[in-house]
Amino acid sequence: MSKVTCDMAMSLDGFVAGPNQSLENPLGEGAKECLHRWMFEEPERHTAVLEGITAAGAFIMGRNMFGPGRGAWDLDWSGWWGEEPPYHAPVFVLTRHPREPLTMKGGTTFFFVTDGIEAAMARAREAAGDSDVAVAGGAETVNQYLAAGLIDELRLHIAPVILGGGERLLDNLGSITLEPVGDPSGTSLVAHLTYRVIR
Question: For the whole prediction, is pTM greater than 0.85?
Answer without folding.
Answer: yes
